[in-house]
Amino acid sequence: MPADVQSPLRVYLDHLERGELAYQFSLAAGRPVFFPRVLCPFTGSDRLEWRVSAGIGTVHATTVVHQAEGAPYNVALIDCDEGFRMMSRVEEVAPDKVRIGLRVRFRVHRPGGDEPPYPVFIPVEAA
Amino acid sequence: MGGLNRGSAAIVGVAESDLGQVADGLSVVDLMAQGTKRALDDCGLSLKDVDGLFSATAQSRLSVLALAEYLGINPAFLGSTIVGGSSFEYHVAHAMGAIALGLCSVAVIAYGSTQRSIGRKQASVREINPYETPFKPFMPASAYALAASRHMHEFGTTREHLAAVAVAAREWALLNPAAWENKPLTIEGVLSSRMVSYPFTVRDCCLVTDGGGAIVVTSAERARSLKKPPAYVLGFGQSVTHASISNMPDLTVTGALAAGKAAYKMAKLSPADVDAVELYDAFTINTILFLEDLGFCKKGEGGAFVEGGRIGPSGQLAVNTNGGGLSYCHPGMYGLLLLIEAVRQLRGECGARQVKDCEVALAHGNGGVLSSQATIILGTEATL
């Protein structure tokens, strides 16, 4: 078996660097796979194709984290329209106003320094 | 396929180690050893009888080796399955299997934690998940909060329902001299406490204490010759559905559904037969989810089910009779303490919190973020 030249995480992050939300599609299972990995969890197949999401989804679950210091912030699970779920947060709306069912759009957050970019979401109507 | 035989093994000795805030400098293995000595005394066995050793803790990578060294024994059989707080329910099944195969005859299962003394961050190293960690969920609370948000959305479960779980646990704790919390708690008191991860306030979350203990498992035959009435292992079931909350297949249905089904099938019992229900209440939503998934009420009705003190000391169903992880003790991997309480209820040793005519007790362990579920059903001699 040929060695993987790039880890699934590296490919995912490279897409994010380019402003894209990437996910994998299992050809054997005919369904998306997330988080990125080397084997399809539905079939065990290693034929996973990279695709770029349209970046539109729906809030599936939501919470507001209250830390001892700093402002409360949102953590949510987002169901992307292509059929995969991921953790993220919804921005540009008060964290306690993020509702299940809210339609959201992806954008890249670049924390800077050594931290890699990561995907956040904003309400579709605010986009 | 073979499998475990109903009632072929029993829990014969149980003991907590020191709990709450333990003496400065005590190690997790000190606590495991304390539990081991006390549990062996409880059943009248000694270290020289022990030929099976099981342990799990977040604070020692090779804990079963550390414990064997500490006790000065070289057991014929070792087990150290670690799947979070439900590890010890798995250990009971593994000990039962090993005993049936003749690989050991007397197994000790031990646990220790000093997370309160040394701080939760020290006690449990957080693993980086590049698909979750950047969003800074306050783990594990936020994972359970996400599940709770879904339950509230789909079934109309309210923060008051969640609070009712905490209040019931507190009422039980007030009857338990070993409980960490000893002051009454009201629904309003839960709701107005410091918010941690919505919808949970700090009173919806388990305690952060030190603690541990041990239990002793042996064959049913040998159990009958020991000091205390045996708690026979009638049923076991397990299910692992995910590791990270992003990958939980359905946030409102846990692996307790499958674990419970398997345990009831092996035990040839149903939820109506269970007298004492010990559920891993890391967060208030757990109790609601597990009551549903283990068949004590229908899916979605758990919130209404726990209203009006139904699962408290004067209620219709005895749930978390020691005060639970919410009010009695939660050292991080609480599953062993569930088994200890279940055994004591079957023996009738629980004083003010004793469930009347307790013949069948269920202990349900949870690990990770609703990830690993394991159910043990125990019964008295009369249930065989």
Describe the structure.
The complex is a heterodimer of chains A (127) and B (384). By secondary structure, chain A is mainly beta. Chain A contains 1 helix and 8 strands, in the order H-E-E-E-E-E-E-E-E. A 5-stranded antiparallel sheet of chain A has the order 6-5-4-7-8. In chain A, strands 2-1-3 form a 3-stranded antiparallel sheet. The longest helix of chain A has 10 residues. The mean pLDDT of chain B is 97. Helix content of chain B is 34%, strand content 18%. Chain B has 384 residues and is an alpha/beta fold. Chain B starts with 8 loop residues before the first strand and ends in a 5-residue tail after the last strand. Chain B contains 14 helices and 12 strands. In chain B, the strands form 2 sheets. Chain B has a 10-stranded mixed sheet, with helices on both faces. In chain B, strands 5-6 form a two-stranded antiparallel sheet. At the A-B interface, strand 4, strand 5 and strand 6 of A face helix 6 and strand 5 of B.
Helix content of chain A: under 10%
Q: What gyration radius of chain A follows from the Cα positions, in whole Å?
A: 16 Å
Globally, the shape of chain B reads: globular
- What form of chain A results from the Cα inertia axes? globular
Q: Please bin the fraction of helical residues of chain B.
A: 25-40%
Fraction of residues in β-strands of chain B: 15-25%
Which structural class fits the helix and strand makeup of chain B? alpha/beta
List the helices and strands and how they pair.
The complex is a heterodimer of chains A (127) and B (384).
Chain A: H1 8-17, E1 22-26, E2 31-33, E3 48-52, E4 56-65, E5 73-80, E6 85-88, E7 103-109, E8 118-123
Antiparallel strand pairs in A: 1-2, 1-3, 4-5, 4-7, 5-6, 7-8
Chain B: E1 9-16, H1 28-43, E2 52-56, H2 63-71, E3 77-79, H3 87-100, E4 106-113, H4 115-118, H5 120-123, H6 141-155, H7 159-173, H8 187-191, E5 195-197, E6 200-201, E7 211-219, H9 220-223, E8 231-240, H10 256-267, E9 276-279, H11 284-293, H12 302-305, E10 318-319, H13 324-327, H14 335-347, E11 360-367, E12 372-379
Parallel strand pairs in B: 2-3, 2-4, 9-10, 9-11
Antiparallel strand pairs in B: 1-7, 1-8, 4-7, 5-6, 8-12, 11-12
Helix pairs in contact in B: 1-2, 7-11, 10-11
